Amino acid sequence: MGEGRPGKDRCLIHDLLQFSPLRWGLLIPLVLATASASAITITSNALILQGRPLHSSADYLPYSNPHAPKGGSFSTMAEGTFDSLNALINKGSPVEGTAYLSDSLLSTSLDEPLVSYGLLAERISRDPADPSWVTFHLNPHAYFSNHQPVTADDVVFTFDTLRMHGSPGLRSYYSDIAQVTALDRLTVRFIFKSKNNPKLAFAIGQMSILSRQDWQQRSFNQVSLNPPLGSGPYLVDHIDPGRSISYRRNPQYWGRDLMVNRGRYNFDQIKYVYYRDHAAAFEGFKRHEYSFRQEKSEQAWTRGYDFPAVQQGLVLKKVIPNQNPVTMSGLVFNLRKSKFQDIRVRQALTLAFDFEWLNRAILGGVYTRLQSYFFNSELAATGSPTVQELNILQPLLGQLSLSEQQSILKPWQAPVSDGSGFNRPNLITARQLLLDVGYRYAEGQLVDGLGRPYRLEILTRDESQQRVLLPYMRNLRKLGIQASIRVVDIPQYIERTRRFDDDMVLDTFPQSLTPGSEQIGYWGSASAKLAGSLNTAGIQNPVIDALLARILVTGDRPALLTLTHALDRVLRAGYYMVPLYGFVGNRVAYWDQYQMPATPPAYDVGVDFWWSRPMTSRTMQGVR
């Protein structure tokens, strides 16, 4: 699976549909056609819902170097600790990098958001007019690392197991699968419960395939560091429990010469080093305890890279551009708590966040306030609704509050301050909103009708976030709110957020260029009730549900854009989180021991296509 590979998003569920296509078009004429008056089955080495794949007949992908040398090592950091090699269950703390152990049926293209190419499945059959089924034809040369063939029976076992024992998000994703059948040793057919989920085939294609024989000897629900049998490019090399894990390249990997893998997986070793907090991790990077990091700290990026190795050119900083929507991040209100039920309270708490002062005084002025759940992409709603958007929204507006209707029908903007640090106009407006709800002030404290003080706690696992949160706390206290920050360790944070035992958390919602089922996980009413779901806010809004249902089944790009704009407007109007800020592009820092292809992929950092070159004497000198 995509989780755990460098350069991927934090969300396992999102990774399943990171490049979900839009609608089935004519695939490519590698055609195995069965023709009848009512159906035409087309078989291809690519899965695509719109247009034609660019690389179906290529020898290698354009963002790879097929002559890249093998060897060397790649190391990066991870947060917290780990106790499990199973990332597919809702137990334990899974280790990073498990994606390298097992292949999936398909491999997503990193420069075509609407395309996946065959991996374990060398061909895919579908009827473009009937998205109620898909058939995968396995590569007869595919095998697990013990040389046991990968068969259709392993695919059936994988999805039967996940639908019964997988994490809640995975069970939700695959709930629309009616039946998985092995037609023969190398052919497996999926039949869906409806024709209204054409993107489900892509979610299926991104799941790592398990070995039935291997899992007969163990419990799937058990937290364990016993390496599973996989078919992927790497094997577990060494585990230092809770501290690090190393993977070694399998020289006998069955798929090393496939088009999607030429010039890929070049490092002999990949290692994840675990740290308890950001500060320790950054110090470890300076000491060359690991060699690559995607920098998420604005303070470190603007002020931290002044150590000797940077000054000597031994460590490089780069912003690698991409064409992805900026990950939505925000301080999320837990609507399961009565204190956030009134939208005016959420509006007031949003007004108290002073981004302009924060960006100028603390963040180095390098960030942009997020004005959309799909910021920096054509999916973002801008200005007033178009006629097409209004045609979708107007029949639904009656189910929303007057405040939400007004927000939807006009251009939306996150609150703006003058940057002075006082934020007085916004706080005055926020105070009045709280009074309108029915709160009052007693001895400077905001209290309800029974005289109980309004308390609010923000839960975090990262002490460095306090730099951003403390100014917000000060503004909340000016409103008479007893606001506090609770920093807990990562296992406690994971457990509490699984149970939604929080008032507010800082969360992120990675977006793809083709919204699909992951949106239901983020915002759908059903997911709000599932422990451990991605619907952190607990949103239960029938208008959002109606839009999500249409987004899931649309087969037309312009229609998808219009629906996504409408969804964006409704989400913003609901004030479900205080929108934070973003940075366009990927900020990376690495010791000067790597090279990358001349043409980077459009939608990913693409470190799986990097390679190692011998460390120079200067680099070695910098390590000492």
Word description of this protein:
With 624 residues, this protein is of the alpha+beta class. A hairpin with a 2-residue loop joins strand 7 and strand 8 (130-138). The longest helix is centred in the last third of the chain and has 17 residues, at 557-573. It starts with 11 loop residues before the first helix and ends with a helix. 27% of the residues lie in helices and 21% in strands. Strands 1-2-7-8-10-9 form a six-stranded antiparallel sheet, covered by helices on one side. Strands 21-20-22-16-23 form a five-stranded mixed sheet. The protein folds into two domains: 12-67 and 88-215, D-Maltodextrin-Binding Protein, domain 2; 328-582, Dipeptide-binding Protein, Domain 3 (Dipeptide-binding Protein, domain 3), CATH 3.10.105.10.
Number of helices: 20
CATH superfamily of the largest domain: Dipeptide-binding Protein, Domain 3
Give the structural class: alpha+beta
Show unreliable segments. 1-38, 617-624
Mean pLDDT: 89
Major sheet description? 6 strands, antiparallel
Query: What fraction, in percent, of the residue positions are helical?
Result: 25-40%
The CATH architecture of the largest domain can be given as: Roll
Proportion of residues in extended strands: 15-25%
- Principal-axes geometry comes out as globular
- Based on the structure, what is the oligomeric state of the protein chains? single chain
For the termini, the CA-CA separation is 37 Å
From the alpha-carbon coordinates, what is the Rg to the nearest angstrom?
25 Å
**CATH class wording of the largest domain:** Alpha Beta
